[in-house]
Design brief:
five-stranded antiparallel sheet, 1 helix, 10 strands
Length: 137
């Protein structure tokens, strides 16, 4: 299991706003860009986590990216994709315009013991041949 060293920003974008065939571009090592407007999410940076796990299946790989974070915001419904910025300044996309879409699970939580207000715990899971897609600048 691989883990990003830390997360400095999280944003979401509607899947329909992305360009098509991003997974194929990532597999071919073609630079991927995001040309849609991003909506940034306020979140607790100390508890945010992004991990990937790779499985081998039928002579191919299946990668699963898991993003977990706490936020006071209610995210809109629909097919959302997420852009994660690591503390090293690298950007990654979770999700594409085509199915399968990221699965977003949310839980209402009472907040952390250090005095945070009630927050929502989001767990985003996405599986594809490349699940954590590097974005070029």
């Amino acid at each position: 299991m691989n883990r990003l060293p830390g997360i400095s920003h999280i944003a979401y974008v509607s899947a329909e706003a992305l360009t098509p065939h991003i997974t194929l571009q990532a597999i071919a090592k073609v630079p991927v860009g995001i040309f849609a407007r991003l909506s940034f999410i306020s979140f607790n940076k100390r508890t945010a986590l992004c991990e990937t796990e790779t499985e081998f299946d039928n002579n191919s790989t299946l990668e699963t990216a898991t993003l977990t974070f706490y936020s006071p915001e209610n995210l809109p419904s629909g097919n959302l994709c997420f852009v994660v910025t690591s503390v090293n300044g690298e950007l990654y996309l979770i999700g594409t315009k085509e199915a399968p879409f990221p699965f977003v699970k949310k839980e209402q939580t009472p907040g952390l013991p250090d005095g945070d207000a009630n927050t929502i715990k989001y767990m985003v899971s996405y599986s594809n041949r490349v699940a954590l897609i590097p974005i070029s600048g």
